[in-house]
Amino acid sequence: MSEDTIRLVTIGRIVRRRRRLLTLLVVVGALFGYGTSLLLPPRYTTSASVLLPGAWEERELRTQAEIATSSVVVDRVAAALGEPGVDGVELRERVTAEVADGNIITVSGTADTPERAQHLADLMAREFVTFAAQVLGNDTDPDAAARLEALRQAVVRTDRRIAELADAADPGRTVESVQTRTDLEKLRTALREAVDKLDQADPASDKAVKADMVVMGPAVRPAGEAPPTRTQLVAGGALLFLLVAVVGHLVAARMSRRLRTESEIAAALGSTHLGSVDVPAQRPAHRPAGRGPRALVRRLLGVDVRWDLPAPRRSGDEASRQTRYRRVCARLRDRLPASRLLVVVPEGDGIALLAAERLATEAAGDSSPEASGTGYPTLRVVQIPVSQPMLPDRDEEYGALVVLSAGHWTAGELAGLAEACVDSGHEVVGIVLAGTVRSGPARAGGPTRPAAAAELAPADDATGVPG
């Protein structure tokens, strides 16, 4: 298909011409989403917040969030729930923890009822705080704390002894006494700085602050289901089926091998394009003939009409359409004066059948011969199936004129049609393309039939034989 398959106007054409089929697919998609919602149990999610007092780095907060969903905490929660068949592995898929602003860890739980979801979130927060307090508290060694306190007491006693020695020294009478007092003051200053650094390095006080985590109230009972809800599944199913249908139409049109241009059709049939004629779009031949349940279903769904053909252009009045038919007859007369031709129409091409019948009527209606003594060729219309083309043997007809509409047949189908013409002894003398148009307003007073015939000339028109 041409590049117009990716344009919005093409999508609009699909929606407009396939609205019945798309509506049915949307309904089927909605039912599919509803059925899926019945298979999936409802889910409710709520969360509880845990405040971590003190100064925490972002890396430490992420570590605490990982601890909140660790196997130890989850196993404790599963044991506290006491639900049969619920273990830590299954419960780990229903709980999450993430870092929020302000040193807050948000712990979430999902269950099939609002009450269970609330209970699960509260248990997760409580077990997390308990386990975190144990981890931080176990890092403090009692023996190390006792040794550290003893060291402080020894430093205090040493500081006092230094002060006593400084007082006992002869203040300022000899150089040695001054030097001794100076060394003692330096030693006491160094001891005090060491004690200050030791107090700063003591993690006991900081851990005591950090270990005091607070659960900020119970979890809120959820008022609605967690996504995807039943409404979302129904809407998603309808939208999914609609998108698949539209994309399927575009892919099928892109992969279509039906010929659309005059040159491609003429090359496939091995003949010359003699002109194009118009058929009003409101005529009933738009729909292909067919009976039976399949044809009825196709007609009800609106898939019996091609969607990928462009919208019919607006035509002039009846006189302008009649002029196109007469020009094609004039070109046939110039090629084959006073001859009989077989007009071949592919079976199922209702537009081409209407055009061929009118072309035969126009040719039969010309009873006035030209100056050369010849008139339009006599045309006989026949329909042949494209799947198994078969034409009657040559009798009085000189050749075959193929009338068809663009965008309906592949190169292989048209090649088989041309071979069937050759096998039956009919030479393909030309091709006429039929297209649908929207009828324009009738012209008030046009030329009469003899006058219009007199105006005909073998010159090419805008949609006739390319020059």
What are the main properties of this structure?
single chain, 467 residues, Bacterial polysaccharide co-polymerase-like, 4 domains, 16 helices, disordered C terminus, Bact_polysacc_biosynth/exp, membrane, LPS_length_determ_N
Outline the structure in words:
It comes from Streptomyces narbonensis. Residues 148-201 form a coiled coil. Belongs to the CpsC/CapA family. This is Wzz/FepE/Etk N-terminal domain-containing protein. It is found in: Cell membrane. The chain is 51% helix and 14% strand. Residues 1-5, 368-373 and 442-467 have low confidence and may be disordered. It has helices at 8-17, 19-39, 58-68, 71-81, 88-92, 114-138, 142-168, 175-201, 204-210, 230-255, 262-269, 293-301, 318-335, 350-364, 411-423, 449-455; strands at residues 44-51, 95-100, 104-111, 214-215, 273-280, 313-314, 340-346, 378-384, 399-405, 427-438. It is built from 16 helices and ten strands. The protein folds into four domains: 3-40 and 228-255; 44-139, Bacterial polysaccharide co-polymerase-like; 144-202; 262-455, no CATH class. The strands form two sheets. Strands 5, 6, 7, 8, 9 and 10 form a six-stranded parallel beta sheet that branches. α2 crosses α10 (230-255), α7 runs antiparallel to α8 (175-201) and α11 packs parallel to α15. The protein is α/β, with parallel strands linked by helices. It is elongated, with a radius of gyration of 47 Å.
